[in-house]
User: Fold these one by one.
Assistant:
Number 1:
Amino acid sequence: MGERPDLSRNTWLRPAAVLGSMLPTVIVGSSCQPGDEGVFRITRVEFDGNSTITLRFSKPLAPIDEVDANDFRLSFAMTTSYTYSYEGMTNLYEYTSYDDLSYVLGGRYYVPGPFTFVSLAEGATVDRIVLRTSAPLADACDTAKQIREQFEIYAEYYGVDARIDTALFLHYASGDVPIESGVGEPLADIGADWVTSQDLSRSRQGYGFTMLVPQLRIPCPP
């Protein structure tokens, strides 16, 4: 089977095949991590497979006309853990990265700048917000799937305890006009440092998305 492939960040910094009509019309939503039922929070994330993300909240919302859509930001995240041998020693490799969607959607050699949202609007009910992205997310979902599949193909090289996880995450940092419930409760920040930073990439040693509590995953196709 050849040498074990490198699953560092450079593995997936390449254009991915567009899924187009292969995606289902509606993808099953992703629930937010459990929390205090009395707290105003996002309880569910739904994705149409193209450019629209719908957020469901635990309580009805106050008017959102003045809320900036880019108080939200997406990240493409990958975390991996495996052992490898070098000069007779067994070493543990654990690595986690968060990257801007522009890396995936713009290709490896052209990074146009931070990926953005173009609009934020009221949903079908008073407890929902609809976000529309500046470009379709099909390539990002496809890249995440390719990474997991490649890892499974070469799993025997990584050892029985090898692990990998990929995800598209939604982050939020309250702006000049915060998102609030109908009685004035503000939505708590979610991975706010990623929103307020102009960084296109961040990485750290260690396994798991421990920097994000709670986690709001964008539900890609299986």
Number 2:
Amino acid sequence: MRAFIAIRLSVEVEDFLTGVQEKLKASGADVKWVEPRNIHLTLKFLGERDNKRIEEAKTILEETAARFNEYTLQPSSVGAFPDIRHPDIIWIGVSQGTPETVQLVQSIEEGICRIGIPKEKRPFACHITLGRSRTPKNIQGLVEQLNILKEGFWEPAPVLKVDKITLFKSTLSSKGPLYEVLHEANLKKT
């Protein structure tokens, strides 16, 4: 099965990010926007794995979560990969909570590597994907909207209490990906 490890977002953060998506949609760009119920912060994509590896990943999640305290995370900026002038992937960055998330990812990577799943080659970038450009249609309008949000408009985002990490199953369908929670591991209470 196809799986990934992520931080689930609260309804308040999802609603806030949906509002950001709506502002960006005004550009009329050809973007496949992430469904609000599917928005999350990916920690590690596992790819296609058999049941044995999934069970081992659950154990790694429990071991990792037991070493980390709960913390808070706050979305803080809008951006794009590879850059804002060429927005292939549109994202929201994180200010508060980035160091803790990076440490969490490093620990997950170490654990997952022990069960034969390779580490990421690229350095981890703490972000929440909002959408992916499909074609260059109205891309300049999207760049303008991104710059408006980046430079002039930014209301404070709600703060998210990160108290667990989640292993998801991802099933691709014609209506988009369907995510199912396979396991959740609680971080230590502070």
